[in-house]
Amino acid sequence: MSRLAKSLSYVGLTVALGLVVEGHAEEAGNFGYGQTATAEQIAGWDIDVRPDGMGLPPGGATPEDGEMLYEEKCASCHGSFGEGVGRYPVLAGGEGTLTEARPEKTVGSFWPYASTLWDYIHRAMPFTVPESLTDEEVYATTAYVLYLNDLIEYDFELTQENLADIEMPNKDGFFFDDRPDVKARRCMKNCKKAGSIQITSEPEVSEDADSGADEVVAVEQPAEGQAVYQQACAVCHAAGIGEAPIPGDTAAWSPRLALGRGTLIESALNGKGIMPAKGGQSQLTDVAVIAAVDHIISLSAKQ
């Protein structure tokens, strides 16, 4: 069982997630929250891969297998050679820059374990549709990124058995922090027993504007639509990824524009299909997103 499955046994996390892992409920006490997690629920969370390869599924692929897949799924953000596009992360290069004032932290120059690359691609990529790749596609993409960093040959087959054997250049650049002041204590003294705790009331939410709650100050966002478009929208719309209509393509945009500006704004704010809400940039204000929509409309409306 990996770290995540084990961590579910602790009371603090079971309260936060509303889950109590079977076999630990009696030992930890039941606070009246949630229900026992099923094996299927645990398996859905238990997808981490350790540096020693534990957690990797069976399979394998070569950089050759991953080249066109990378070009299709990854290059629009990370560049055909891992150089990064716009503000998206650079994946390759950067050797010898970690001691410089502006280090280039890439997979090849900074990451200590190849397993981290497989794990991250599996759980978080592609950006617009995470966890959509098959295990074989994750192996293929991982292999190609390692190839871009000159860590494996083009015909090398990366597999469940050998991925943990890949030595990353910066593997010795990380260490465990052994300072005594960073060690957390697991237990407190004089704690109440779980069985003695009773919920006697539920919190009430006041609707009084003068209730004394902290004022929420909106973070100022760029109001210029083109800048917001480049930040949140261009990754898909500039290249037509996932059938996203390209701004300026009047044939593709005409039926969408016919739905009205309000409908387009609603889709941009709340997401539609594989398009995430606000293009995945949840920190953007509604005003900023609306500015980006108006920018796209200005490019796509018939003159």
Protein described:
The chain has 303 residues and is mostly helical. The protein folds into 3 domains: 3-45, no CATH class; 60-165, Cytochrome c-like domain (Cytochrome Bc1 Complex, Chain D, domain 2); 225-300, Orthogonal Bundle (Cytochrome Bc1 Complex, Chain D, domain 2). Helices cover 36% and strands 3% of the residues. The chain has helices at 3-7, 11-17, 25-28, 39-45, 63-73, 75-78, 114-124, 135-148, 225-237, 250-257, 261-270, 286-300, and strands spanning 19-21, 35-37, 60-61, 158-159. It has a two-stranded parallel sheet with strand order 1-2. The chain has a two-stranded antiparallel ribbon with strand order 3-4. Helix 3 (25-28) links the parallel strand 1 and strand 2 (35-37). Helix 5 crosses helix 8 (135-148), helix 9 packs across helix 12 and helix 11 packs across helix 12. The radius of gyration is 24 Å and the shape is globular. The model is unreliable at 1-27 and 209-223 (pLDDT under 50).
